[in-house]
Amino acid sequence: MLARPVYFLAAVAISTPALAQPVAHPVWAMTPGAEWDEPARAQFGAALAKRGLGAPETVAIPPPPTTPAADFLAQGMAALRAAAFDKAARLLSEAATQALATGGAGLGPGQAASLFFHQAMAVQLASGATYSEPFTEIAPPEAKTAYLRAAVLGGGASLDAAADQPLTEASWQMAKSLVASRPQVGLTVRTRARAKVAIDGKDFQPSPATVFGLAAGEHFVLVEEPGHLPWSTTLNLAVGESSIDVPGTPLLVLDAATAATLAQARGAAFALVGQLHLGDKVEIDLRLVDAASGALRASTAVALAAKTDSPDLAAAVLRLDEMASRTSLARRSAGADGKPRIPLSLAPPPARAAPEGAPEISQDTPGWLRQHWPLATAVGAALGTTIALGIVVAKDRR
User: Which domains can be identified in the chain, with CATH numbers?
Assistant: First the structure.
């Protein structure tokens, strides 16, 4: 007959709002263009499944910010076609400045030579320069420098066709003749094995990339590697052969603020972020990010395994998830001041002698509870705490 009051007390305990919530929300940060990304994601998913966590939410790592050179080029070309020569000269000169400062970053194949050619054209037309024979000098000097840069980078037939006015045609032919008389040089660019190299906006080559027959002058070098920031520079080559060793570039990562936002959207206290790391070794990076503050709590790296089942990765996921669970439990047990609460004692109070004529529980349940309230309170607290902790643990493991 004791079941009725015990059931009543358990129901009261269950009605208390549960504090349980997901602890670690798994996120896979996809590296676009990386051949190892899919097997790495499969290993991460298998490690999560072993821990009893759900499938990861997949988000693409955002590309690096672009330089404004391409935007200035597009705006300058539009102004040039509209015969707004002053505006075109200003915009294209700004694009040229950006390109020289960044090694042509952000410009597509062939755009570097086109940029300097059209800059020269816009500057000439804005200056009011005219054509007369014999044609002996490219004017103004800014236009001459831009024409020479275009010729060094290799203009091609498209620029020959664009030089359809006497002034631009004569200037362009003279610039190409001057560059052809310069000494030819060679360039070798060495970088990491998975990186690719483009010189003067031409097709990408594997490292080491070597090009011969370049005209002396300014040349652009661009290095791209999946999962890393691009690297670029402008080289002023003189005579002979030159070589450069490109340092390793920083890894592209999913920023902590984004990871924290994804975890908050799922009601989780942490984000467990995995991503491919293509450096000297092929690894899987793991990071535990605090959803409330965006702070990095822990990180590790595990070598990519030959099979989907990776015991090392499963162990790393287990460690980080355990850390998240312990930290979350400590936070929930803390008071408003951040200090741990005094743990609730589950021991019943000392037995009290029943007074003569005390009611039996089977005959008068409310009266029995009033007489035995310390015991009833202790039993209810113990059951309520046990059930609440069971809910928290169960939800933490989802």
Answer: 1-63+254-398 (3.40.50), 69-180 (no CATH), 184-245 (2.60.40.10)
